[in-house]
Amino acid sequence: MLFFDIDNTLLDNDSAQSAAAMSIYNQNQQLQDLYAEEEFPGIWNETAEKYFRQYATGGLSFQQQRRARIKEIFRNTLDDREADTVLKDYQAAYEENWQLYYDVLPVLEKYRDVPKGIISNGDGAQQREKLKKTGIDHYFSTVVISGDIGIFKPDPRIFLHAVEKAGMEPSRCWYIGDKVVTDAKAAMDSGLTGVWLNRKFAGKDEKVPEIISFNDLIYKAP
Fold it and tell me: I need a surface site. Which of 29, 73, 97, 98 has the fewest CB within 10 A?
């Protein structure tokens, strides 16, 4: 069985975040006064990652981490209502920019007859909506999202939960994701075959199977 991550594996999440961030930047003079245009997407993504880690470790709810991100970006000048208004605009732009990578549909079709699943960190409703809006939800028989079960990668329990839900054994499953530690190594530590999808050429790790795109994936069922 083939399991996949979603963000920056199937869906170009970084680009969607950056485009949505620039949308709210262009709507808010306050942000334009605080940050240079060219630096803002990077600042946004770094801040988003910071608060997502707090969500993933149980420190904040999904909504709390989103609101905290906005408040920090605006240098804590917004109240909850104002932050939520910005979040609404950001979310609309974010969803408009959800796009699959060019190699996703070909690999899903290539392995159409192989059982496939999803193991993803994030909010359950939002992650499922990504699969639905990009038109690929029907490819996956098993979908496990960390926000639904309160267990986040790289915890082995999320991988084992997904494998059990699919009625498989870990040794018969592959997991492909864009992060070498959180995805590939964590899957390997859980008894699956972990594959690092290193789209951004982020270094090397000789101990981890690596592909640069899904065009390089050669799957053979155990």
Answer: 29
The string of pLDDT tens digits covering residues 83-128 is 999 999 999 999 999 999 999 999 999 999 999 999 999 999 999 9
Which secondary structure element, helix H or strand E, spans residue 119, and what is its range?
A: strand 116-120
CB atoms inside a 10 Å sphere around CB 154: 18
The C-alpha atoms of residue 193 and residue 175 are separated, in whole angstroms, by 6
178 touches 9 (CB < 8 A): yes
Sheet holding 142-145: strands in order across?
142-145, 116-120, 2-4, 174-177, 193-197, 210-211
Residues 114/4, Cβ–Cβ less than 8 Å: no
Could you please report the per-residue DSSP string of 19-39? HHHHHHHHH-HHHHHHS-TTT
pLDDT at position 207 over 90: no
191: helix, coil or strand? coil
pTM for this structure?
0.94
pLDDT tens-digit series, residues 138-174? 999 999 999 999 999 999 999 999 999 999 999 999 9
Residue with tokens 């909850």: 80
Q: What is the DSSP string of 74-90?
A: TTT---HHHHHHHHHHH
